[in-house]
Amino acid sequence: MAEKFISLRNLQFLLYEVFDATSLTQYPYFEDHGRETFDMVVDTAMRMGKDMLFPALVEMDRQPPEFRDGRVYVHPLAAQIMKACGEGGWIGAQSSCELGGQQIPNMIMNAFRGIFCAANYSASVYPFLTTGAAGLIASFGSQELIDTYVPKMFDGKWQGTMALTEPQAGSSLTDIATTAQPTADGFYKIKGQKIFISCSEYESTENIVHLLLGRIEGAPPGVKGVSLFVVPKLRPDSHKGLTPNDVACIGIYHKLGYKGAPITQLAFGDNDDCRGWLVGEPNRGLNCMFQMMNEARIDVGMGAAAIASAAYYASLEYARQRPQSRPVNAKDPLTPQALIIEHADVKRMLLFQRAVVEGSLSLIFQCSLYVDMSTATSGEEKEKYEMLLDLLTPIAKSYPSEMGILSVSQGLQCLGGYGYCDEFPLEQYYRDVRIHPIHEGTTGIQGIDLLGRKVVMKNGRAFKLFLDELEKTIAAGRRVPECEKLAVSLAGAVETLKEITRSLAAISLKGEMELYLADATLYLELFSIVTIAWQWLLQALRAIEAQGACADADREFYQGKMHTCRYFFAYELPKIKGIAARLEESHDGLTVTMKPEWFD
Amino acid sequence: MAEKFISLRNLQFLLYEVFDATSLTQYPYFEDHGRETFDMVVDTAMRMGKDMLFPALVEMDRQPPEFRDGRVYVHPLAAQIMKACGEGGWIGAQSSCELGGQQIPNMIMNAFRGIFCAANYSASVYPFLTTGAAGLIASFGSQELIDTYVPKMFDGKWQGTMALTEPQAGSSLTDIATTAQPTADGFYKIKGQKIFISCSEYESTENIVHLLLGRIEGAPPGVKGVSLFVVPKLRPDSHKGLTPNDVACIGIYHKLGYKGAPITQLAFGDNDDCRGWLVGEPNRGLNCMFQMMNEARIDVGMGAAAIASAAYYASLEYARQRPQSRPVNAKDPLTPQALIIEHADVKRMLLFQRAVVEGSLSLIFQCSLYVDMSTATSGEEKEKYEMLLDLLTPIAKSYPSEMGILSVSQGLQCLGGYGYCDEFPLEQYYRDVRIHPIHEGTTGIQGIDLLGRKVVMKNGRAFKLFLDELEKTIAAGRRVPECEKLAVSLAGAVETLKEITRSLAAISLKGEMELYLADATLYLELFSIVTIAWQWLLQALRAIEAQGACADADREFYQGKMHTCRYFFAYELPKIKGIAARLEESHDGLTVTMKPEWFD
Question: How far is A48 from A111, CA to CA, in rounded Å?
């Protein structure tokens, strides 16, 4: 088994050299921190990843959750990791000190999360889902709800979940049917079913707190009638005890991968005794939920990039050790075999993986920086960062997810037949990573979110701000000889993006919304590639700057960084040509006019 | 579970409308056949597929082969399918009547194989591997070997295998180390190990016949010293009995998918009592083996296309039944939900799958036609078909394999969360199809085969013949108004392919072979897309011709066919722009100059 699952050197490069995390401490919100705290967080995550999470990776896959008599039994690591993260303060670390958190920047906690995800994605989900759910109560819940739930969740004693999806609704939250009947006692009686809920039932936790979307009796139809509730598995009673709350697990999903985390189907209120407490205002549940959902989307991107990272290092280790065949120019069968890492096509597969992994991680930390800056600033500046974050969330969710699949697949391919066998972890990563384009909004939904909502919101202001950011990087690139060609390429790609956006806008202006959105997934792909090219140019600029005066080992790191950047621009960025060629013709409505009965 | 795994209508379209299989019967070799025989073959395969193979698809996955005390136990279907195929004469059907076969065209037998593979890929491997192994003995073995082995194999009583790969050699046949020591009794004593051998050990067959590559003592190093042997598990003795032949199964692989077929590691001659019989001339083993290997490569392409077909129909069935969300222009939550097949992005995912599946199948039948024409003709004409087949084999192997993965992945995506769960077969197809870019020569090896060998062989004559074939189709397309635009696009793509081939040739002429082959995988991809576009234009021409006067149900089939062709040209063909942009710059040697130590 490979020993490395993520590069600490690369995390440090992104945190401190590209995004300058320490400069956040100049803002009052983060002023108690410094490089020392940050290093401590990252080191702790690396230690826990190596000692606790990674060793159980395979075992959690081979011993998936079991469902017996309405109870779910999971691997012991679930309880251990919740305990360790609770005791270490990691679940609430990012929250305000007022709430019992430590106000650690999102960027640093994202590094923490990335390390966990790379070490063992399934295991990482337990604490991080709890972070999101507790954060939601903290943001929108009453003081009583906060006092009752948040400390227990931050301590890792109570698991949090996100209970949105229903059998008849799927991705369409408009069709949520779970009902909430008000009572005179301040709580609501909840009735309904939820499906595909992660970590929503298992024995080895004291309690499980569902953040649930439902509909108050008499609420308007559609998303405007959806409210958010806290619905615990066991409800705290007045004697500080816990009473069963009529939440039943009625099934567990047997999945392709991501097997360490139980995903279940839940029935609420079958015995008319399920109580829920409203979070935020009635009928505004979706607005609240989108705080958690947007964070979760970036977490998904991180999860995908992290699994791809682990797969990259597993394939890199194999490629460094496996002799096979000879260089093209040395076919004498009596000469020794070469290591496969010396073959150009294997190097191509490794460069591809590194380009995807480090490009994705860079974008995710870019988003973290926007999160932190919007926390630290106010007014127009805050709004700017929020808009950039909103715009880039679908990219940060879907590029790592979609490309992560291809990246892991290339990792598997590096091992040939062994990649297909369970002696090596590649086949597991291949199964695990496939969840990401599905959960927290499919790639199709991300495309519609980007093109239908984000690009056009506030008269295209977010898009304009994004272009400004790219312009700045391009201008910096033009001033550095090693980056000039890359900057020119990126400038050309930005022109393509702008032209395509204009040509699609023309369809939208005619009111042809179905046609406008028909190729939204392709638009998302094009937009993503340009975005990742920008991130690679940012990284290249720092690498060039740094490699003048650095240690030898570091010089190799920077040279590899530059070469991977060149790889991205040479092999990945040109893919926008093909996508643009299609998007220019989107008005032909090829998919819109396809009739269902023509499918044979 | 979906009921349909392959389209009989589409198979008929390809066999009779596009490639006119019945016209083969004008040649003496095939003169005993006609549409009736062909229909009988296809109907039998459909019946066996539906009644025998498909129902066991999931069970074979959930109950993989077990290895206990040196023995391997497989699902009962293995024995049943070998028996049924043996009794039906399907294992040897394609062989000459002289050998006990029926001289059925390759094209028809490929339809048979495709149906089996779509119904249950793992199960299909048992008989079809036997076909290949027996065919090899028939082509190159002595009369005694033929008499001893071929009838038993054609009858399905003895399993055939292909034993090439060794632990230290992997894909590099140069490094084969299994030894063969000549004896005075006409046989050789075999000693060595083989890995990743499909169907190479299981209890429910009378005997297993390995077609094994080894090295006669004193043979020259490298591939010029490799010979081919028949090495049975049990050797026939003079009393018509069977004696153990010192072939031991020492391990079984636990695989991501393709679980119904046992893949094992074998030790030959550990007790110095393993006998092998030479097939063909000494040191010419690779030439012989490549007959089987090339057939196996096209079989792999078929296997991938067939699994993608089954996945397509499973996702199509789901998309026709699952209501979710509403049309873009009808957001009123009180209106009924739409079926997801009505959403443009779902149609796009279905069109993508159909484009890959039917484009791949078309190319595979095109190759079958070349096989059959080279069987039926002689002299220059025969040579022409052989060259076209040689050139297109790496494409027919790798395009369906690589794109099959993406196609199945889109099928899985159509089902959202359910696609990730084992209640539906998509997750199994996703695992099963991943083997194809690996076995029988990885995609990297196919690229090197195409660019390093096939395109340049005989001064580029095969490539020239291929371009002539495309020109003919383009000329026909220009004459049909509905196809004119497509023909012009294809002509442009052919120009791109020619330019790229020339620009790479310039590198080769300078003797820079490593640089020349560094992007061979991308060249393969570009070449493949152009080839599949050609196949789609061929299909479109027939669809246009036929839809003038046809039944209503058929009209929908042809309209779907045309629309899928347009999809391929609008969404897939433009991808060559990005690939070409990279290949134009291949001389920069970006992967060649990447140093192994720069990988972090």
Answer: 13
**Rounded to a whole number, what is the distance in angstroms from the first to the last CA of chain B?**
45
Instruction: Give me B297's structure tokens.
Output: 């490569």
Percentage of the residues of chain A whose pLDDT score is greater than 90: 94
Reading the block at residue B408, the tokens are 């199945």
Pick the catalytic residue from B402, B440, B525, B572: B440
pLDDT (tens digit, 9 = 90+) per residue, A34-91? 999 999 999 999 999 999 999 999 999 999 999 999 999 999 999 999 999 999 999 9
Spatial distance between the Cα atoms of B282 and A177, rounded to a whole number of angstroms: 75
Return all residues near B494 (Cβ < 8 A) that are at least 6 apart: B467, B470, B471, B474, B530
Please state the domain extents for chain A.
442-589
**Inter-chain residue contact A591 with B344, CB threshold 8 Å:** yes
Share of chain B above pLDDT 90, in %: 94
Cα within 13 Å of Cα(A471), Cβ side: 8
Distance CA B210, CA B328 (A): 59
Minimal CA separation from A567 to chain B, in Å: 7
Contact criterion met (CB below 8 Å) for A533 and A490: yes
| The pLDDT of residue B1 is above 70 | no
> CA distances (Å), A34 to each of A9, A45, A103, A362, in order?
18, 17, 12, 21
User: Each residue of B269-309: pLDDT tens digit?
Assistant: 999 999 999 999 999 999 998 888 888 999 999 999 999 99
Nearest CB to B438; choose among A221, A416, A518: A416
Contact A417 B438 (CB under 8 A): yes
Query: In 10 A of CB A549, how many CB atoms?
Result: 8
Which pLDDT value is given to residue B77? Answer: 97
- Separation between Cα atoms, residue A264 and residue A196, nearest integer Å: 6
Does the distance separating the beta carbons of B430 and A347 come in below 8 Å?
no
B161 is written with which tokens?
A: 């295998």
Question: How far apart are the C-alpha atoms of B29 and B34, rounded to whole Å?
Answer: 12
Q: Classify residue B212 by burial, with Cβ atoms within 10 Å: 0-12, 13-18, 19+.
A: buried
A269 token code pair = 């209120």
Q: How many CB atoms lie within 10 A of CB A269?
A: 24
Report pLDDT for A2: 63
Asked if B256 lies within 8 A of A431 by C-beta distance, the reply is yes
Q: What are phi and psi of B67, to 5 degrees?
A: -110, 110
Q: What are the tokens at A524? A: 């998302």
Mean pLDDT of A382-411: 98
Unique residue bearing structure tokens 């029988």: B440
Q: What residue in B sits closest to A327 (Cα-Cα)?
A: B514
Active site residue B440: yes
* Nearest Cα to Cα of residue B163 among B132, B138, B188, B142: B132
Chain B nearest-CA residue for A569: B582
Contact A421 B165 (CB under 8 A): no
- The residues, ordered by sequence, that sit 6+ positions from B65 with a Cβ below 8 Å of its Cβ are B72, B73, B74, B75, B202, B252, B259, B260, B261, B262
- CA-wise closest residue to A199 among A139, A258, A242, A241: A258
Q: Among A215, A343, A420, A519, which would you mutate to test the B interface (most chain B Cβ atoms within 10 Å of its Cβ)?
A: A420
Measured between CA atoms, how close is B418 to chain A, in angstroms?
A: 9
Interface test with B, best of A121, A321, A345 (most B CBs within 10 A): A345
pLDDT at B581: 98
- List active site positions of A: 440
Q: B596: which chain A residues are within 8 Å (Cβ-Cβ)?
A: 320, 339, 341-342, 347
With CB atoms and an 8 Å threshold, state whether B591 touches A348: yes
**Least CA distance to B323: which residue of chain A?**
A168
Torsion (CA) A326, A328, A334, A336 in degrees, nearest 10: -30
Q: Rounded to a whole number, what is the distance in Å from the CA of A429 to chain B's nearest CA? A: 11
Cβ-defined contact of A345 to B447 (cutoff 8 Å) = yes
